[in-house]
Amino acid sequence: MFRQLAAPFTLAPMILRAPGGSPAPAVTGQLLAAMDRAGKDRARADTPSRALQALVQANARLVRDARQSEQDAAEARRRQAAFLVTIAHELRNPLLPLRLAARSLEHAHHDAAQMDTLLATINSQVDHIGRLINDLLDSAAADAGRLRLQCMPVALGGVLDTAMAVCRPAMEARRHQFTSSCTSAPLPLEGDPVRLVQVFVNLLQNAAKYTPEGGRVSLRCERRGRIAVVTIADNGMGIGAAALPRLFKMFAQEEEGPGGLGIGLALVKQLVTAHGGSVSARSAGKGKGSEFVVTLPCSA
Fold it and tell me: What pTM does this model have?
């Protein structure tokens, strides 16, 4: 008997029915209310779980963002360190010819032609150092918003003539075939002539530097509506596809190229943008040359 009383039992749902077989209204209402309370209790029980899940997802996003920021910072430090090494080399390179020229002057008092050659070497290297320092200072000023333009009416043709005259010795020294073709249409601008010359000197010097000796460099200028378009092309070392998107950023350098400060093109973009224009680069890849296109708004 006791074993029968101790036997397991289960509770089965029971619905009281009114005469006629339908559930009693009062009992039905109580059941529905109980079910509603049970649903709300489950919802309240699920709320902490959903909150915890959202917190975990937000934390995962923060971890990913932190890792990306750390990688970006490490890459920036690497580029800055490479930049400092490069600038040390760039500023040291002119010192050897300067030293040799200075020593040679001591023994060239009676040879006017040799003295002229040595003085030209000294002036060239001093100019090179001056341009490097000016680019550094100008780029820092542009980043800080302190670079001021002295704008005035200026003819783009005259700007290009000055830039080509400055860069012609570099072209000749590397025995490049340098050609230019400019439209006869007037190209009046409102801009800073010194800064505009600086833009095109930077681009032409890059073309001369990154093109093997005996290469081809060209400058073409045309007008498209109210826009002046200047294209500088070469058949030099070209630009890798991975480098193109960051080409105009500070410290950007080709990993496999001959180096360079990585500020010239950044400064070019800053100056062109300040004049309301744009600059872009195209290249079919390594060893296939490059092309730089500058657009500037005409004032008339």
Answer: 0.64
